[in-house]
Amino acid sequence: MTTRPAARVGDAVAAVDTPALVIDLDALERNLQKMAAFARKAGVRLRPHAKTHKCPPIALRQIALGAVGVCCQKVSEAEAMAAGGVHDILISNEIVGEVKVARLAALARQAHVTVLADHPDMVAAYGAAARRFGAELAVLVDLHSGGIRAGVEPGPAALDLARRVADEPGLRFAGLQAYQGAAQHIRDFAERRVASERWIAAVAATKALLADNGLACELVTGAGTGTHAFEGTSGVFNEIQPGSYAVMDVGYGLILAEGGHPVTEFENSLFILATVMSRNFPDFAVVDAGTKAGNIDSAMPTVWERPGLTYVSAADEHGAIKVASGGNAPHLGEKLRLVPGHCDPTINLHDWIIGVRHGTVEVVWPVSARGAVL
Fold first, then answer.
1. pLDDT for the residue 41
2. How many CB atoms are located within 10 Å of the residue 31 CB?
3. DSSP assignment of 223-288, as one string?
4. Using one digit for the tens of pLDDT, what is the confidence trace for 259-307?
5. What domains lie within the chain, and their CATH numbers?
6. Quick one: which of 12, 101, 190, 312 has the most CB atoms within 10 Å?
């Protein structure tokens, strides 16, 4: 972590050093409130994915609004959340390796920990570690939703693995992990709904098969920002795991709502604040935010509320801004807000999140789980 953040509480936004990760607190809070209200109305538990923000203060705000806990992807990420005061954590991933599994079981003595399994050897390793540390691990059978992803096939294979979990001392069979990652970014609303409905049917059939064999599913959990409205109102899922809704990005801005209009339910609250550092040519500008400040794997950043300015390419430390003829050209030293192309890996590039409201820095949050890949 760097020795100092890009700003201090009380600074004007204009004084924030760049490149910096900035969150509009009003927009963030509206996003958190909207998803919490959806979950309450749908009658499902909300467990936001902390891999998006990697920041315990944001997780605690989500919990204060009714979330039951968070999801994490890695043991180290879960450890950072627990250290930050989060006490109910689902590691929505398979954990393999003696060292990692031991850390997992040790963490289960500090917090309520749930983890995924998709193989009998994994079940045996979890059980051995739980017994060694005198802890209980809740385990979900991870359902394969298609493509090159982890998981076991829905149906009889899931039943067999669930039985193994239920029979393993130190473990508790807790239900099904049913996250369909590929559906989150299907742009067309009707296609996204069809994909979700097919998945919901497969999950429902597996849940019924387990029940017929004496294995009740305490949890059927999954769904993301792109599909929460489908799984959350299905009557099959009783917990949802959206993450990006809190901050949003260019990628999620490309998916469509019913009627072919862009999704506007959640707002862009996250920005990369960048400074124009070169302005010698009329048709382009260079800013100080490149790939080390923002991820571009799924989309380029966009320039917030500046028509005529287009972020067109990124080098390590620089970003190129195309200036349209007659556009509102930026001047040397001007600060621009960039909407990240992909929020999760962008946040992982930064040590600090600068929370602003009405032009002033209100909070400075450490990205405590930055680089937590173990």
1. 98
2. 24
3. --TTTHHHHTTSSS-SEE---GGGT--HHHHTSB-TTSPBP-SS---EEEEEEEEEEEETTEEEES
4. 888 888 999 999 999 999 999 999 999 999 999 999 999 999 999 999 9
5. 13-21+264-366 (2.40.37.20), 26-247 (3.20.20.10)
6. 101
